[in-house]
């Protein structure tokens, strides 16, 4: 499974509650562009539009060797492919206050482009500070244990 893009700050900025695997509806040159590693999902999100899920604000530049007619928008909305049961479950979860959908990674599975999306809740600033403090104290304890005693 080849990973093309990851949302690196997702686990820092959000509390991940549940993940789903979805397909992406792409144009041919977008698939080639993704397979060459040109995709950015930082700052993108998933919205609900007419009972369907769409990926917004993901940047997929045009494949340089493709002949594209007309204007191409690299930030266009891209529909996600999920079953009706998964969509209804996600919509039920998103009805709770404070929950949102974010993409975690884009990868290839059996030559198909898939995206992992997550139902998540944003961390508060205090939570982030607590995590940083815990990480620093843990690092200091490990450092003290490694030093030889004199």
Description:
With 150 residues, this protein is of the alpha+beta class. It has a single domain (2-123), classed as Small protein B (Small Protein B, Chain: A, Beta Barrel). Helix content is 30%, strand content 35%. It contains four helices and seven strands, in the order βαβαβββαββα. The protein has helices at residues 10-13, 28-35, 84-94, 125-146, and strands at residues 2-6, 14-24, 45-49, 52-56, 78-81, 99-109, 112-122. A seven-stranded antiparallel beta sheet has the order 1-6-7-2-5-4-3. Strand 6 (99-109) and strand 7 form a beta hairpin. The longest helix is centred in the last third of the chain and has 22 residues, at 125-146. The protein is globular. The mean pLDDT is 89.
CATH topology: Small Protein B, Chain: A
CATH top level assignment: Mainly Beta
Span of the ends, CA to CA: 49 Å
pLDDT averaged over residues: 89
Helices and strands, in order, run as: EHEHEEEHEEH
Lateral strand order in the biggest sheet = 1-6-7-2-5-4-3
Low-confidence stretches: none
The biggest sheet amounts to: 7 strands, antiparallel
- For the secondary structure, the number of strands is 7
- Number of helices, where a helix is a run of at least 4 consecutive DSSP H or I residues: 4
Q: Indicate the percent of residues in helices.
A: 25-40%
Task: Give the overall shape.
Answer: globular
């Amino acid at each position: 499974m080849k990973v093309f893009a990851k949302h690196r700050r997702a686990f820092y900025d959000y509390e991940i509650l549940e993940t789903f695997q979805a397909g992406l509806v792409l144009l041919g040159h977008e698939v080639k562009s993704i397979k060459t590693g040109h995709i950015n999902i930082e700052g993108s999100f998933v919205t609900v539009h007419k009972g369907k899920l769409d990926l917004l604000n993901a940047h997929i530049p045009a494949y340089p060797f493709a002949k594209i007619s007309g204007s191409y928008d690299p930030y266009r909305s891209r529909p996600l492919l999920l079953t009706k049961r998964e969509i209804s479950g996600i919509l039920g979860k998103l009805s709770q206050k404070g929950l949102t959908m974010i993409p975690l990674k884009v990868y290839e599975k059996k030559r198909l482009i898939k995206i992992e999306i997550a139902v998540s809740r944003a961390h508060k600033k205090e939570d982030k500070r607590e995590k940083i403090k815990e990480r620093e104290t843990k690092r200091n304890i490990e450092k003290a244990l490694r030093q030889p005693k004199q």
